[in-house]
Design goal:
Blueprint lengths: L1 E10 L2 E12 L4 E5 L4 H4 L1 H11 L8 E7 L11 H12 L4 H4 L2 E3 L2 E2 L5 E2 L4 H7 L4 E5 L3 H4 L6 E5 L2 H8 L30 H13 L3 E4 L6 H5 L11 H13 L15 E2 L7 H5 L10 H4 L4 E4 L7 H5 L2 H6 L1 E6 L2 E6 L3 E6 L17 H8 L4 H5 L3 E4 L5 H6 L6 H17 L10 H7 L4 H12 L5 H18 L7 H11 L16
Helix pairs in contact: 2-3, 8-18, 18-21, 20-22, 21-22
Length: about 500
């Protein structure tokens, strides 16, 4: 007796279709799973047997062989439990073949026969080539986001079998209202003072430029960073599908009834490991924090406290917008296009910046600055020293523009970038910048002096032109870049004072 049922497994953030083949024959009772299953797949035997007994369904006293095709693809996770159980019932004749034709089955089985959601449901539903897919009740909202195939659900294995036999009707659970994975957006008007910080934040949002903020504790670095996602326009449908797949595969939490359209905001702790940040793992290759920030903002607070090895792992995804993870079990590529915002203190005590304030030695200050490598620093388009606001600004300063007003300018700037064929100006290559961001004579002289003095590298010059183009877009002006545009880009690019070697020892308490 032989039966086949469609299902799927997760590989990175993508789904892979799988055919579950079950053969029941005479011989010594046994249950064997072949087709490169991992430990969790092999444990399906015990979960399926307990679920069948709990659901008052028969377990065969024969030799059972389960093949997971294609045989060369490694199968991970418990998502094949339901397909194995249905195929086993089909092979024994307890289900009719027409009842399962054109259907795929995804879900983990509890020992009591309950159906449970598995990570990556959306990606796996999109991978199956069937007319309908059956999932657990708590995975129904996610499964229906794909649009095709039709999603059906059941709370238990027994209820599912009754529906397949026509003895009961499929139920449709109530959908909860959608929610943002980043929580409520905070308004920019709450920030008092910091005019240059607000301007840098607007430029970062409009052009997708990476921003480093250095300053003493309480200056407002975190406050500014947390308001950046609210300045970004909603994700388009393609980007929303990618972000939702990432959140589903990484089990970061998915919306209940709609795709994720709000730009994500991720702020991992400075003790995060390499695997937690870039993704991977020793067994299952799962996306990390930088992929969870795809289409949004990755905020690294206390940047100087992160491991230098972990920070340097950001260099490749910052350039290419993708992270490639290779392990003995396989290789996957995760999307990783995000705006990186880093914040850190200027020294270990945090009070560098004024005479008589810093308690750190010269060696401690230099050692702290070296936690960030030169190549990583060069990938920050803007590097800003954030001072504490004055008492006048805190108590009598006027509120700035609200987030909604700034977002309108950001959206218009991104619309201009879309006409150039990119999502934002930071993605323009050198040849495209030559054509799209020509320099006026006074701007060219400023840039040439900066390169001649060693202030800018070749990459730095390209980033200055990109930031200057974003300034033009925000002001609603067409190129060429004028002198003030390049001057502002250079001002925002200049290293904070603490990075200058000549600073060490000049402000010793």
């Amino acid at each position: 007796m032989h039966a086949e049922v469609s299902s799927a497994v997760l590989h990175g953030v993508s789904g892979q279709a799988v055919r579950v083949e079950v053969h029941v024959s005479k011989g010594i009772p046994g249950f064997t799973i072949v087709g490169l299953p991992d430990a969790s797949c092999r444990e399906s035997r015990d979960r399926v047997r307990a679920a069948l007994h709990s659901s008052k369904l028969p377990w065969p006293d024969n030799r059972v062989t389960v093949n997971l095709a294609p045989g060369g693809l490694r199968k991970e996770g418990a998502g094949l439990d339901l397909a194995i159980a249905v195929a086993l019932l089909l092979a024994q004749g307890h289900l009719a073949k027409p009842a399962v034709e054109g259907s795929a089955f995804l879900g983990e089985l509890g020992l009591d026969g309950s159906l449970r959601r598995v990570p990556g449901t959306l990606s796996m539903v999109e991978a199956v080539k069937c007319d309908r897919v059956v999932v657990a009740t708590d995975a129904y909202a996610e499964a229906r986001l794909s649009g095709e195939p039709e999603a059906l659900c059941a709370p238990t294995l027994g209820q599912l079998v009754s529906c397949l036999r026509g003895e009961a009707d499929w139920t449709t659970p109530a959908l909860s209202p959608p929610r943002s994975p980043s929580g409520p957006m905070e308004d920019l008007r709450e920030v008092r003072g910091q005019p240059l910080g607000r301007r840098a934040l607007e430029i970062a949002a409009a052009g997708g430029h990476h921003l480093l903020m250095v300053g003493p504790p309480g200056a407002g670095k975190t406050m500014l960073a947390r308001r950046l996602p609210g300045l970004l326009p909603p994700l388009d449908r393609d980007a929303a599908r990618v972000v939702t797949r990432i959140y589903s595969a990484g089990d970061f939490g998915v919306p209940t009834s709609e795709l994720i359209i709000a730009p994500p905001f991720r702020a991992p702790h400075h003790g995060a490991t390499m695997a937690a940040l870039v993704g991977g793992g020793s067994r299952a290759l799962r996306p990390g924090e930088i992929s969870a920030a795809h289409g949004g903002v990755l905020f690294l607070d206390e940047l100087g406290e992160f491991s230098p090895v972990v920070l340097d792992a950001l260099r490749q995804p910052l350039e290419e917008g993708v992270i490639r993870v290779s392990r003995a079990v396989g290789s996957v590529s995760f999307p990783a296009e995000f705006v990186l915002v880093g914040s850190m203190n200027p020294c270990p005590c945090g009070n560098a910046g004024g005479p008589g304030q810093c308690r750190c030695s010269d060696a401690a200050r230099v050692r702290y600055a070296r936690r960030l490598s030169g190549p990583l620093l060069d990938r920050f388009d803007m590097r800003l020293f954030v001072q504490r606001p004055t008492a006048e600004e805190l108590f009598r300063g006027r509120p700035g523009e609200p987030t909604a007003a700034v977002r309108e300018r950001v959206t218009e700037a991104r619309r201009r970038a879309a006409h150039r064929g990119v999502r934002c100006n930071s993605l323009l290559g050198s040849s495209a910048l030559e054509a799209e961001a020509p320099l006026a004579p006074e701007a060219a002289r400023l840039a040439e002096r900066a390169v001649a003095s060693g202030q800018l590298s070749a990459r730095g010059l390209q980033r200055v032109r990109s930031v200057g183009l974003t300034v033009c877009d925000l002001d609603g002006r067409p190129p060429p870049l004028r002198g003030p545009d390049v001057a502002l880009a250079l001002q925002l690019r200049n290293n904070p004072v603490w990075l200058d070697r000549s600073y060490a020892g000049s402000h010793v308490a």
